[in-house]
Specification:
CATH architecture: 3-Layer(aba) Sandwich
Largest sheet: 6 strands, mixed
CATH topology: Rossmann fold
Oligomer: single chain
Number of strands: 6
Number of helices: 4
Helix content: 25-40%
Strand content: 15-25%
Radius of gyration: 15 Å
Shape: globular
CATH class: Alpha Beta
Length: 161
C-alpha cells in the first residue's frame, strides 16, 4: 500500500495586478491556513518520504509553511506541476521509486481536485485552497497507479481546524 497526500496551495494575494500568475504570493488568510495545516500535519503524523511541489510562488510558500511539520522528506520543486493535468500528475507519480511509501503533491486546481476524484472516486465535492487530502492507494508499485485504486482516507479543511 502507498499513501498520497495532496495539498492545494494556500490562498494567494491579488493585491498586485501587475504580477504574473506564477509569481503571486500568499495572502494573510493563506498564511494562516497554511499554519493550521502544518499544525494538523504535526499532530497527525503526516510524514511523506517525498514532496513534489509546483514552482509557483504560492505553492512554494505553502510548502515552507508546512515543511517543518513533515519530518525530513526529500523536496523536489517541479515545473511540470504548475497547473498540471491529472494525466501529467499520474505520469509523474507512476515514475517514482517504489521504495517511497508516502508522497505529497503541492499544486493547483482543477488538476488536484480531478486527480483525487479519479484515484478515489467520487473524491471531495470541492477542493478549496489549503485543503489536504490523504489517499490510501491499494498498489504495491507506483507504476500501478490508476483510476479507482485509492480511498479518500482524510480530507482536511483549514477553516475546520
Amino acid at each position: 500500500m502507498k499513501h498520497l497526500w495532496v495539498l492545494r496551495h494556500a490562498k494567494s494575494s491579488w493585491d498586485d495586478p501587475a504580477l504574473a500568475d506564477h509569481d503571486r504570493p500568499l495572502a494573510p488568510r493563506g498564511r494562516k491556513a497554511g499554519k493550521r495545516i502544518a499544525r494538523f500535519a504535526a499532530e497527525h503524523d503526516v510524514r511523506p518520504d517525498l514532496v513534489l511541489c509546483s514552482t509557483a510562488l504560492r505553492a512554494t510558500a505553502t510548502l515552507e509553511l508546512v515543511r517543518p511539520a513533515l519530518g525530513t522528506p526529500e523536496i523536489r520543486i517541479e515545473s511540470d506541476l504548475y497547473h498540471a493535468s491529472p494525466t501529467s500528475m499520474l505520469e509523474l507519480l507512476r515514475n517514482l521509486d517504489d521504495g517511497l511509501v508516502a508522497v505529497m503533491l503541492i499544486g493547483h486546481n482543477p488538476g488536484l481536485h480531478d486527480l483525487v476524484g479519479e484515484l478515489a472516486p467520487p473524491g471531495p465535492g470541492a477542493f478549496p485552497t489549503a485543503a489536504l487530502a490523504g489517499v490510501e492507494l491499494e498498489i504495491g508499485d507506483w507504476s500501478e497507479l490508476g483510476p479507482g485504486c485509492g480511498r479518500l482516507a482524510q480530507f482536511v479543511l483549514p477553516r475546520e481546524l
